[in-house]
């Protein structure tokens, strides 16, 4: 006993002095040059502490150092979370495209900015900073000449490609906001987003190419704009050589760009002018157009990109998310370009032409940081290790995961097989609303522990908190609750387009004084965070957010349907899949199988393919409370086959409804 105690003490004191040596040899100014001016900060832990207790000082120093300003800001921040007022770097003027392009063109014009990994492996296209600036300026001039003004919002419906990035940056150059809509969304979903954003200009491509298939994107835009009187012009870039029908409204983008000047005066934008809208699902049927502004967003994207992934100059960054999602915005486009990095735009799928695609690409492009979604990792691990081992992935240094919880099996495989046990896996938690990564295992000491499946530690300046049902702070560890962010940060969304009240109600009012994320989390004994999932009616299919109400809205539009309830249930590849309970009107006279197919088609057509229910169960009635609310928790338990966990059914209006549903579910299985 005595011996054990002594040896433990000896070990502890040895490791203390070893740590002292480490922290003495750690050069904080090399790690973060701004920190040289932070009093008493000599290691990462102190830097983290400083970023919270001297938040304004921290963000001001970083903003001055990392961004190129046209004129300096006078106020670091003016935020009141309880009232939904969020302002950063007021008084400052800058241009985001200058920060992403011009300043790197001055120092290294021939450096590769984008590697466009096209659908066909081996056909990648490299675009230098000089070339990307040229494209952006020509397009900026074209937009200006065709009447797009500062403050307008341009909708972009394109797959990941250099012209899509140039479109985003051209908007930023002339002070227009962009609204990128994921090119997998249907015409109806696109139209809804164009209308809400009031865009008069849409940018698209003639066709997309993905997984060896051609996708008629221009046709989808044609259908969408029929229902959008605001649209005056559609710019069409040529992704394939196949001509498409062009109307008076359509503009041949590349041809017109050739006629434009390659110099485009950047607009001087206020820090708080809108940079982009990005629509995401909430718990009602109507998607929310989250608004991000110029300086704060860019600063947060570039800082998280550099520190979470330990991105170094010269590295090739491979984020395989589509540019239609926030991950593509922050980590395929804005973060890497603001850092002067080389970033990959991935057009294909993880299994095209075979399940070795990612790793063959890592080898061919010499990717150093790979950032992807758990759903793809779960899919690939099923195909076996040999698809990874065929390729040389030794360039990899960091592996990132985003979009949904990563289960231990997928995490271990990613770490052991893809990363060869050498690369830290950073499970990054964040949202469209947060603009950039909020909780992740890094930055921290390179040898600091990483627990599989845990997002772990807050980023600089971030203060996650857990609250109880009444909104009281849960201060101890080993506890779970709704996850809130207690301190404003520059990257956060400022509002919901045209609906600030909804912004306040969704994020600011549930727990006054805090930003409510909609997720639940667990804080471990050691103080590490693990995300447990959504607390609202949002489900996560293959890392894509979907509101159950959005799907119900579509299903309920079918004349045969009386009402419906949609829930998410766990799926071993997609994370969650969609399950719809549908009550039909009397005497429909159509076989259920046909109706089931019809409803699936309706959802694909109205939203997107990934929103399609995997299971549709027709029921006589839904379980409801006496006040008429659908008891989704009961439906979830039935689908999870956890009949013992149905919980309190005393408020249930008609207990027979549950029995019927249980029986129907068993028949379906
Ligand atoms: C970046 C992004 C956000 C929602 C978020 C949460 C889930 C994202 C996660 C994660 C567990 C992670 N989510 N990252 N859950 N672990 N590492 O995905 O943005 O599309 O807005 O989705 O995704 O539920 O609230 P977005």
TrEMBL record:
Acetyl-coenzyme A synthetase N-terminal domain boundaries: 46-100
Kindly report, in one word, the top-level EC class recorded for this enzyme. Answer: ligase
* UniProt entry tagged with the keyword Nucleotide-binding: yes
Cellular component annotations (GO), alphabetically ordered = mitochondrion
Q: Which residues form the AMP-dependent synthetase/ligase domain?
A: 102-489
**UniProt keyword list:** ATP-binding, Ligase, Lipid metabolism, Nucleotide-binding
Q: Does the keyword Kinase apply?
A: no
Q: Which SUPFAM superfamilies match?
A: Acetyl-CoA synthetase-like (SSF56801)
Q: List the catalysed reactions.
A: propanoate + ATP + CoA = propanoyl-CoA + AMP + diphosphate; acetate + ATP + CoA = acetyl-CoA + AMP + diphosphate
Extract one GO molecular function annotation from the record: acetate-CoA ligase activity
- Biological process annotations from GO: acetyl-CoA biosynthetic process from acetate; lipid metabolic process
Q: Where is the AMP-binding enzyme C-terminal domain?
A: 550-629
Gene3D superfamilies reported for this sequence: 3.30.300.30, N-terminal domain of ligase-like
Q: Which family does it belong to?
A: Belongs to the ATP-dependent AMP-binding enzyme family.
Q: What is this protein called?
A: Acetyl-coenzyme A synthetase
């Amino acid at each position: 006993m005595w011996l054990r105690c002594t040896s433990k003490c000896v070990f502890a004191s040895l490791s203390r002095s070893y740590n002292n040596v480490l922290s003495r040899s750690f050069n904080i100014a090399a790690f973060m040059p701004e920190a040289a001016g932070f009093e008493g900060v000599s290691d990462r832990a102190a830097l983290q502490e400083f970023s919270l207790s001297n938040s304004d000082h921290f963000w001001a120093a970083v903003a001055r150092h990392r961004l190129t300003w046209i004129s300096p800001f006078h106020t670091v921040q003016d935020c009141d979370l309880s009232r939904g007022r969020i302002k950063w770097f007021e008084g400052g003027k800058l241009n985001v495209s200058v920060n992403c392009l011009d300043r790197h063109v001055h120092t290294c014009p021939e450096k590769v900015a984008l590697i466009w990994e096209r659908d066909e492996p081996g056909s990648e296209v490299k675009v230098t900073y000089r070339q990307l600036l040229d494209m952006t300026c020509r397009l900026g001039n074209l937009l200006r000449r065709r009447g797009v003004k500062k403050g307008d919002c341009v909708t972009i419906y394109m797959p990941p490609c250099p012209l899509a990035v140039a479109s985003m940056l051209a908007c930023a150059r002339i002070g227009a906001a962009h609204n990128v809509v994921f090119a997998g969304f249907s015409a109806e979903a696109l139209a809804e987003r164009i209308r809400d954003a009031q865009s008069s200009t849409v940018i698209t491509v003639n066709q997309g190419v993905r997984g060896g298939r051609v996708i008629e994107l221009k046709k989808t835009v044609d259908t969408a704009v029929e229902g959008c009187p605001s649209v005056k012009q559609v710019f069409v870039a040529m992704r394939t050589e196949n001509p498409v029908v062009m109307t008076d409204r359509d503009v041949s983008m590349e041809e017109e760009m050739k006629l434009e000047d390659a110099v485009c005066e950047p607009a001087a934008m206020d820090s708080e002018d809108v940079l982009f809208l990005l629509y995401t699902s909430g718990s009602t049927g109507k998607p929310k157009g989250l608004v991000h502004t110029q300086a704060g967003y860019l600063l947060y994207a570039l800082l998280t990109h550099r520190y979470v992934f330990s991105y170094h100059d010269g590295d090739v960054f491979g984020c395989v998310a589509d540019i239609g999602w926030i991950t593509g915005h922050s980590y395929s486009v804005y973060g890497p370009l603001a850092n002067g990095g080389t970033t990959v735009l991935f057009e294909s799928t993880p299994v095209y032409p075979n399940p070795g695609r990612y790793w063959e690409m890592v080898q061919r492009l010499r990717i150093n940081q790979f950032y992807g979604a758990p759903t793809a990792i779960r899919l690939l691990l099923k195909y076996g290790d040999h698809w990874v081992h065929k390729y040389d992935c030794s360039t990899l240094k960091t592996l990132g995961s985003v979009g949904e919880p990563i289960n231990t099996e997928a995490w271990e495989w990613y770490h052991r097989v893809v990363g060869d046990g050498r690369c830290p896996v950073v499970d990054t938690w964040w949202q469209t609303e947060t603009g950039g990564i909020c909780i992740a295992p890094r930055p921290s000491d390179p040898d600091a522990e990483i627990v599989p499946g845990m997002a772990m530690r807050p980023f600089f300046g971030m203060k996650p908190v857990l609250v109880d049902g009444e909104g009281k702070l849960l201060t101890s560890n080993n506890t779970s609750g709704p996850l809130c962010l207690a301190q404003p940060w520059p990257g956060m969304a400022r509002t919901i387009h045209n609906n600030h009240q909804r912004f306040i109600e969704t994020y600011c009012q549930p727990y006054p004084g805090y930003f409510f994320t909609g997720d639940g989390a667990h804080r471990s004994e050691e103080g590490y965070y693990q995300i447990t999932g959504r607390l609202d009616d949002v489900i996560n299919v293959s890392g894509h957010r979907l509101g159950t109400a959005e799907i119900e809205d579509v299903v309920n539009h079918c004349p045969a349907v009386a009402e419906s309830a949609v829930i998410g249930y766990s799926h071993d590849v997609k994370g969650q899949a969609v399950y719809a309970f549908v009550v039909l009107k009397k005497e429909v006279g159509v076989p259920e199988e046909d109706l089931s197919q019809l409803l699936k088609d309706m959802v694909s057509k109205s939203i997107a393919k990934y929103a399609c229910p995997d299971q549709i169960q027709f029921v006589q009635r839904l379980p409801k409370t006496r006040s008429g609310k659908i008891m989704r928790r009961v439906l979830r338990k039935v689908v999870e086959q956890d009949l013992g966990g149905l919980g309190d059914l005393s408020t249930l209006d008609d207990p027979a409804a549950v029995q019927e549903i249980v029986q129907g579910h068993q028949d379906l299985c």
